[in-house]
Amino acid sequence: MTSPYYLTTPIYYVNAKPHLGHAYTTIIGDALARWHRLLGEDVHYLTGTDEHGLKIQQAADAAGKTPQQFTDEIAPQFQEAWRRLGISNDDFIRTTEARHKVGVQQLLQACYDAGDIELDVYAGKYCVACEEYYSDEELLEGDLCPIHKRTVEYFEEENYFFRLSRFQDRLLDWYAAHPGAIVPEFRGNEALGLIRGGLRDFSVSRTSLQWGIPLPWDPKHVAYVWFDALANYITAVGYGTDQERFEQWWPARHLIGKDIIRHHCVYWPAMLLSAGIEPPAGWAVGGWLLVGGEKMSKTSGNVVNPLDLIDDVGVDGFRYYVLADTTYGHDGDFTYEGLIGRYNSDLANNLGNLLSRVATVVGKKCDGVGPAPRTDSPLAEAAASAWEGTATGWAEVQPNRALEATWSLIRATNAYLEANEPWKAEPGAEVDAVMGDALEALRIVAILASPALPSTCQTVWERIGLPGRVSDQRLPDAAAWGAYPGGVSVVKGDPLFPRK
Ligand code: MSP
Question: Does the beta carbon of 94 sit less than 6 angstroms from any atom of ligand 1?
Answer without folding.
Answer: no
